[in-house]
Write a structure and sequence with these properties.
Length: 286
């Protein structure tokens, strides 16, 4: 997916929010915005939005001398999600279609996204998962039957992670997959926004059911040209690819590969591009 003009103000907002996490110094905030503003004219609209976010991350690292700006935020997200794990499992176990409920829970976990909503209140957003019925949430595109059929046939599953904390919700879905499947869970290689790293995957316990690897990418989306050769080989060989989150959709939507995208449409540009409603729960076969 290419970058649209509406994405540019979001890039600037993201840079401001990241800077405010590290320091209250407005002079430093201005320096960062000035630097980001200088690189925007050189950024082609034909590029993918996660590529620009990757460049912003590098500006931040240069100006602030810091890499993992969201470390504390991610730890809080992981703790909050783990505290909900028993309740999520209960919801699945009481369901008539456990896999379907696990898919819905995995997508619901996609609310833990500071890049899309910079003033996110985790407790408030997560509580909504239990107060709203999924039947009342928009599902303009929800290709569950094909997903279930292809998942049942697959021997090797490649699952692309998105955010820290959200990993617990992914774990619930992966635990509903048959034991005999080889499941590979790919996270980011280096800190970028609140995206999950290997340590987040282990903290959230997903290694109990899946092999955890780094994709090699240092952007908030699986941009294949920045991924390791090992990951690219797995990407080609996997029987089914499950892609979580909007960043992975932005990065992979144009790839010639059958991928199932699971996300909550929190951005009007992405919602329009995917042909879904803002706020929709999306299970899309690409």
């Amino acid at each position: 997916m290419r970058t649209f003009l509406e994405c540019i103000p979001c890039f600037l907002t993201q840079a401001i929010e990241m800077a405010r996490l590290v320091t209250g110094n407005e002079i430093m905030h201005k320096k960062i915005i000035d630097e980001v503003s200088r690189i925007i004219p050189d950024f082609s609209l034909g590029c993918k939005p996660p590529e620009m976010a990757r460049m912003i991350q590098k500006v931040m690292e240069k100006q602030m001398g810091e890499k993992d700006f969201y470390k504390q935020v991610k730890a809080k997200s992981n703790d909050m999600a783990l505290s909900l794990y028993p309740k999520l499992k209960e919801k699945v176990n009481n369901s008539k279609d456990k896999l379907l409920t696990a898919v819905e829970i995995a997508i619901a976990g996609n609310v833990i996204d500071y890049a899309a909503k910079n003033t996110l209140n985790i407790e408030e957003e997560i509580e909504k998962l239990f107060s709203e019925e999924f039947s009342g949430v928009g599902k303009t595109v929800f290709d569950y039957e094909n997903f279930k059929d292809e998942l049942n046939k697959a021997k090797r599953v490649l699952y692309l992670a998105d955010n820290a904390g959200e990993v617990v919700f992914d774990r619930v879905l992966i635990e509903e997959m048959p034991e005999e499947k080889e499941i590979i869970y790919a996270v980011r290689d280096k800190p970028v926004i609140n995206d999950a790293l290997i340590e987040d995957a282990y903290v959230c316990g997903i290694d109990k059911k899946a092999k955890v690897i780094s994709s090699g990418v240092d952007a908030p989306g699986t941009i294949l040209e920045y991924c390791s050769q090992e990951f690219r080989d797995l990407f080609k060989e996997a029987d089914i690819i499950i892609s979580k989150g909007q960043g992975n959709y932005e990065a992979l939507n144009d790839e010639n590969r059958q991928i199932y995208y699971l996300f909550r449409a929190k951005c009007p540009v992405i919602a329009r591009h995917a042909g879904v409603g803002l706020g929709d729960v999306v299970l899309m076969r690409g």
